[in-house]
User: What shape does this take?
Amino acid sequence: MIDIDKLRQADRRSLGRAITLLESSREDHRKEAELLLDQIMPYTGNALRIGITGVPGVGKSTFIDSLGRYLIEQGHRLAVLTVDPSSSVSGGSILGDKTRMSFLSTHDCAYIRPSPSGTTLGGVARRTREAILVCEAAGYDLVIVETVGVGQSETLVAEMTDIFLLLLLPGGGDELQGIKRGIMELADLVVVNKADSDMERTAKVSIADVKHALNLLKPRLANWQVPVLPASALHNQGIEEVWMAVMAYQELIVGNGVLQSRRKQQSVDWMWRETGDILLGQLSRDEGLIFLLDDLRQRVRDEKIAPSVAARYLAQQFLESRKSS
Amino acid sequence: MIDIDKLRQADRRSLGRAITLLESSREDHRKEAELLLDQIMPYTGNALRIGITGVPGVGKSTFIDSLGRYLIEQGHRLAVLTVDPSSSVSGGSILGDKTRMSFLSTHDCAYIRPSPSGTTLGGVARRTREAILVCEAAGYDLVIVETVGVGQSETLVAEMTDIFLLLLLPGGGDELQGIKRGIMELADLVVVNKADSDMERTAKVSIADVKHALNLLKPRLANWQVPVLPASALHNQGIEEVWMAVMAYQELIVGNGVLQSRRKQQSVDWMWRETGDILLGQLSRDEGLIFLLDDLRQRVRDEKIAPSVAARYLAQQFLESRKSS
Assistant: This one.
């Protein structure tokens, strides 16, 4: 059992054990995890949830470390969670290493939790959504969810955060051709990192290009012109300006109610996705359907039956089987 | 009812009506669609399924038009389907316009079908998977599925095709920083388009950069070094070389059985995803759960209960309710 009082005092051991519990797929662990979630719900929702993405090499860790140092000096308490699909996509973990954030990893007011490896992206997403709640209950008033943005992870992170930061490297207009419109459309704030010394001029060009590209996009939020700011996390330059922009955005979405309505929508969407996963899990474990499932799977494999047709029959039989169960 | 014989003779009207039927969400249409799928299954699976993605401006349409002209001259029959999530993501359709492919759109041996707008990405994906089967039954031996690669669409397209082409623009090394590793990892073949006149040198640089980037990635398929080729669709340059590479890839995956095993896996995954969608649809239409659903939705919205906890209870009640139904 997790000691809620200790957890609420941000006791690291309780925090770690709680998140480990959320990551477990064991049935008894899951029940315990849901009990825990029920107990902490009253203490959740009080943090600003910040999503940060950027390709490998853009300097996410250094940026978060530098931003985090600034925020802790301002009296904030910061939790950093990572969604690292590379553990499922390309084998090795990109973000796993705590030591990438030398300041935060040693500071009492910061809690860093790497992504669990070897789970599906969906699994990582659920665990991260729940971990956000745990960190909020533990009194962290800022929760950063970072992702390297492989495949679909940045969409998932945008779906669980209040503001989404896109980190870019200084680069010519050609670079933008490579940035997927999808990502641009998710960004509430764009930061061109490593905008220092010899890259300053290039950075200026990138900023102009990004602003231009953003003008072509349907804005994600009315009355919000996505800021494109230069920064050098390594030299702690532009960090405060970035934070001012985040604050301005927070003020806007709190003021016009978008933060609350967006969170409500996120939660409902999450409930649906989760419900689907649970039903499929039950179906695949239904002993009465083992033979049917094997048969359909085989016929689908052999292209004897269209997957969508098999799916309808499978769903029907699953629901039928409950009557006699 | 669709006339299967006419469909198999690639009668355009039957083909169009068949795909429209697949796009309908009406229950009676769905039943008819599944009957159609059952009837055509024996005639499916004979085409090479080619996925093509690239950012807006890379020249996808011109490339497909140029490639298609070459293929038709070789005696092939070509169907082009588009997955255009922009219709759901950013409102307006990017790929909808047939006339982008001036040659193919007027040729008897080519069939172009734009993406249905106003549906979810998942809906577009299912319809496209089924449309591939219909085009195969109609005797097209090549099916190209193009997507602009917004959000998650390129992953979906990679999941329904045999070979995945990534189109890039000539650009410096910085450009690559913007290309998501996720996309690079999906690519079986990379084509740097618009590699003509004054861009030739830049294209050479890009090709070197892309090759370098690919070396950093875990190969998607053993014994296959992803080729990175220059092309100028506008001037019909490099098209044959691209096709030779596609052929080499097909020979490899047919020879080592990857094509078949990959298709089998794709079909099973598709069956699962579809089953989940169907069960959620039933649950949301279950009259006995209306009040519970509203209540849970409200409590999730108000952050009184964790979405994952609500999901488990909802799934339980749904399955319980079937017993008494």
